[in-house]
What we know:
alpha/beta, 6-stranded parallel beta sheet, 10 helices
Amino acid sequence: MNRADVVLRNCMVFTPGGLVEGGVAISDGKIAAMGGTPFLPPAKSEIDLQGAALFPGGVDTHVHVRDPGRRERGDFATESAAAAAGGITTILEMPISSPPQYTVDILENRSRCASERSSVDFGFYGAAGNRPEHIAGLAGRGVAAFKTFLFRPHAGREGEFEGTCAEGDGNLLEIFEAVAKTGKLCAVHAENDDLIRSFTRDVRAGGGRDLAAHGRARPPLAEVSAVAKVLAFARSTGVRLGICHVSTPEAMELALKEEGSHIVFNGHSNFGFGATFANSREIQNQQIDNIYFVDDDRFTNYSTVMVSVKPDGMRYGQAYPNWNPIFKNGTSALMPYTFSQGTPPYNYYLTYTIPGDPAVYKVELSDGSFLERFPDSNTPAWFSAGGSPPDPVRNREYFITNPDPDFNRCDFTGTWTIGRVPGGGYLGESGYLGYNYQYRPAGTGANKAVYSIYLKYPGNYDVMASWYPSSGNATNTRYIIHHAGGAATVQVNQREVLP
């Protein structure tokens, strides 16, 4: 077995099949072997990672480094060090500097700066603005992609945006045509500059100068109109288009409807109800107060008509405290539990079609199985080559029913306040399980929480409790467990956490 340059031992290695205990051998800067510790080759240098997880380095495709023109804002040394500290081993730098790389000479100068200072691998976007004659040369020099702004530079910052901004629709069409010939992607900062300037004048005339005024000067129309335009121009020129910073449901829907589009969404699917777009204050508070319904206008729904949802997860885990499982018309959104109540939900294979091909295909996973809508329903999945749903009379086995007459619940005597530890984990890292807990200060014992557990099968069960320790809790809290043999009382000190 050949000696490797470096072996990283005693770690959890990330693989397509999950985390595997072992290590990685490196030779000539490349992975030479990966596997269990006994199978790794000897090495000139060995590093014991002491059980840490070993992941591939990340690639950050949208980075701003002001080097060399405005190093006080962050240069390749500081920004690449920050990237490396976060597990990012490759950065792609956007063209905002003094000047941006809109010519080959500027690109080569910035590349030299990065080579001298960067701690990680790097690449560049080329500036594609009002100097489209340089686009072919930049592509030949190896830029990863291009970046175009649709606004005019702000006064005093012209140097930072030189060669990056499109001067009108005619120039934008020239840019897209030039980039299309290179086969590279053109990323666009999609804002309607004329509208924003008009709205900004109105906002300032009314005395607006704060953070909220910035938002009022950029209503959804400013983004949606720009996104619609660049999509139309991309269809006309054939350019590969990337739209940066979409922040409105309307713009996202336009992108989703574009044939062949790929959406990178940083957020949560909200159990299938769809994405939400938060304003700056909501992001700061990590809470949205004005979402109330399943079909709320603030959801951008791109899922199926049936979803499996945790109501407590929506209200407390996803920070929508006023959401309820009802529609805007006031009717319940809960599907029937049994056929006597209506038509229950059904499990099915997720499918897709190919333009020009009438066949319906199942979505296949990497292990050869097929993706089900409700895989944990303990119900077989329905599939129809024609796309038709199961018949509730002839195909009842595919429907998800729950005829059980009872359910788990907790009833309270008195008022119990909802508490939550900021950043507290769902699995009990802060002393309680779930999204939050309810509590009442120590008292006489007259206020009770009664848990009713529905057990389908007789047998012996462990009863466990968790709580968030607080100096205001009782030191003699009593748990009374009722069972087939009578009742048992356990007394605990809820100012402490049990070992």
